[in-house]
């Protein structure tokens, strides 16, 4: 892992980076910022006050807080913090943020005593930044924090809608998003059918993304994200060629903006950009566990479960009789502050529960044998980077796509596609802990990734070409 940063170079080019203010987006953007800094660029980070990262971890960057400096602005008060509603800020800032972003960029561009700005790099979901950048004649690259496969599916949503794949979403996604689960999806044979345009997907995978059929504001953001990512000056992906080769071919064929696939967790850990305090007290316990004996359980930074399904989780985990390390964020169980729903004495001595962990470090630990994940892209990719097989329980958005890709394409995990049933959970955990084929495949994938980082390898070359490309702008 590259941890050195150059400190003696003359930083005469500056890059402004603007992440989406959520953990799964801040992490790869700050990893990218560190990487570009290590290549000699001067770094300015634009960020909202909401979810601001710990700036003292980045004394080498300049931070500027924008868009929500007025605490009385009612548009941004009292917005949800968990579940799909957590992304309502993204919709609002995309709607109202353009004038302020333009103003802030103009200020930066006019600074005579600072290095000149080469480009703006924003999260792909900040689609409002594209017309702003164009109006200032400033090249905008995007960081897309999910997989190439997900982008291609999102780009096909209008087509999938026309073909009727989203027809059931209005009836099904509401109970799904309310946390009632999707067991009933399997009662409908149509939902088990293959999606012609993406044969690895079932119809229910499309529906589980949670996009309603018509006039959906989320669908609108996705549509604009796709359109303006294609119009950008370049796309940076947190991935590597050997993971998504067919998808990369399609992206290169269909999008004129150059693509750069960079496996960020292999360059820098995400610890310094953690928005929550990381518990490290369990490491002495983890150090004592036999190799590959512990299941790490974590469902990312915003997912939320109802109490009934939480209890299925608890029983599934306990009945598997495996040791576990489980991250339960405060707010994860709907209606609870933390662990009120946990039955007394059930967990025994087999596991540890923490509020937040240094995930990459945990996944790299020799005692970890499997990762039960919500299939967020960072979590999925971090698991691949450490060669850890997965049990996938996706919630919404790109997660059902990542889960299907993990289990059916890469074949490095088991997808719990029928929701929260304790027996299925127990079986999946036991299977992943002992299935030699799954374990071997993820090991080979990790080795492929490690080789790609060596000079001449695809990931190594991708970093080189990104640096050369930005330098040429
Ligand atoms: N993460 C962490 N500690 C935890 C849980 C998660 O550091 O206890 C990090 C994890 O390493 C990943 C990010 O939070 O980088 C979650 O991103 P992901 O895309 O997996 O899911 P999201 O939170 O966006 O749903």
Automatic annotation (TrEMBL):
Keyword match Transferase: yes
Gene Ontology molecular function, alphabetical: quercetin 3-O-glucosyltransferase activity; quercetin 7-O-glucosyltransferase activity
Any Pfam family the entry gives: UDPGT
Transferase as UniProt keyword: yes
Entries under Gene3D superfamilies matching the protein: Glycogen Phosphorylase B (3.40.50.2000)
Coiled coil: none
Family: Belongs to the UDP-glycosyltransferase family.
Protein name, as recorded: Uncharacterized protein
